[in-house]
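Fold this sequence, please.
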Amino acid sequence: MTKVKTNDVIKVHYTGKLTDGEVFDSSVGRDPIEFTVASGQMIKGFDDAVDGMALNEKKTVEIPAADAYGEYNQDMVQTVPKKNLPPEIVPEIGQQLSATADNGQQIPVTIVEVNEKHIKIDANHALAGKDLIFEIEVVEIA
């Protein structure tokens, strides 16, 4: 029986949940997700979970934050003067923006606070600091 191993291209159906049961993403009703195992396309814990699974095998795995989107990093929260924003942007809490890092890389950020002169932006992934639960089914091993 063929088992998933590093560098295999596989397709899986999945449902991702928080530890309180809230579903944050799922392939149910869509095409399965395709990726190369251990290539950096998926979070480490997901890659580790599928390693050794057989075709049509299902399992549920809990992935700690460190092996998911990392721990929440307070250093990735910054206060920015409103005057630094393009004039067409009216900042609102929850709004997604793109910031430019010192190296020129674009970083997605979320506005978490707005006052008269400043906004506070958070560059942490929305799932940073959270343990995740995935229900996984391998539907193809190429």
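The CA atoms of residues 15 and 26 lie 4 Å apart. The radius of gyration is 19 Å.
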